[in-house]
Amino acid sequence: ACTIQSRHQSRVMVSNYHIKSASLALELSEEVVLEALLELGCQIWPESSDYNTTTLPRTMPENREMLWASMLQFGHLLGSFIAISHPMWSLWLSPSFEQL
């Protein structure tokens, strides 16, 4: 199961919608979130007008829980940063991290 999860997580792509959700949830600029994701090796979804207009919501959710849910799409990348301070959260975000 951890192998499958690792493979899945390595293929996750993050859209501008997810970057904006994370910036709102974490109260950081979109630029800071994008820079951090790129540094972590996250793949960014290529922009195309078809994708953006037909798939993504036109407005950001006002509900904070929805912002966090969007951010959890790439939350596994954050697991290694909190492994020492919050090991249970780290394993929850990425159980396969324990085997790395």
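the 2nd protein, sequnce then structure:
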Amino acid sequence: ARSNSLTALGLVEIMMYKSNYPCFTGTRYGGGVSLKRFEKRLMLNVPDSKVEKKAEQLITSSIDHYGTKLYDIFQKQSNGYAI
């Protein structure tokens, strides 16, 4: 996935152009904020040798997290499944 990161970032940037989608507009996400957050999630600043450890840390921190539990409840109620 990291090898295709520039392509993915370019596609998101194209989708953002003159977009009215809430995920790309407003004070919370507009002005390129969404693109910067997406780039951060790709962990391009993390060396390849440390990506696996960083991913494991993210997984560990999300287990039993309140937000994760709420999202699982939302998925169950809206789509009929939960992880």
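The chain has a mean pLDDT of 90. The CA atoms of residues 66 and 72 lie 10 Å apart.
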